[in-house]
Amino acid sequence: MVKAVVNAMISHNIINPAMKQQYEYAIEIMIERFITLASMIFISICLGKTVYAIFFLTFFMLLRGHTGGYHAKSFFVCYLETMIVFVLLMIFGDRILSYQVLNYTALGSSFVLIMIVGTVNHPNMNYSDAELRESRKAARYILILEMFVMLSLKAMGASEQCICFMSWGIILCAISIVIAKITKQEVKNERKKKCEKGFAAGVGIDGGRRDGGKYL
Prior knowledge:
Blueprint: H1 2-11, H2 20-46, H3 50-67, H4 75-96, H5 100-117, H6 129-155, H7 160-182
């Protein structure tokens, strides 16, 4: 189906034939993003936690798009892992972080880690030096902004559960970074140029494909 769509675009002179593979890849990513997001929204509706899911996804996706982190080897594995983590998070997330000491410790540790690391240069991304610097800078700015939003909402008396799920967005980004480093999913030679210029964002907790944008 994807190839048929791209071929139709080429036949109507909408895209350059030389960019065929890139467009096929981008459309695949967008379809995978839609499937994953739709599944998570459906699950959150069934569990009666749609609002909390939106807070979590917003914080996670904005930050994850720049921090990078662990990637699964295929969309199926990515989807399966994402759904398992998401369901567990929706059921137990607020209970785990209901202990303030644990909440502040996990969030504080995640903040420090992301501020130090910034971005994991995964082989799928293969950032150049300049791109990596910009991504790290963006990750830190977004992190500071998200922390400011949480502190402001807390000061205004917002729901502790909402703030809790926002916290999980940051914490899971940090966990993903740690897993990526443990499993050695990182390009050490930062001067290496990209092999491929994909331009679609992903959406999965483990980011099974190129993570150019926002991934849960």
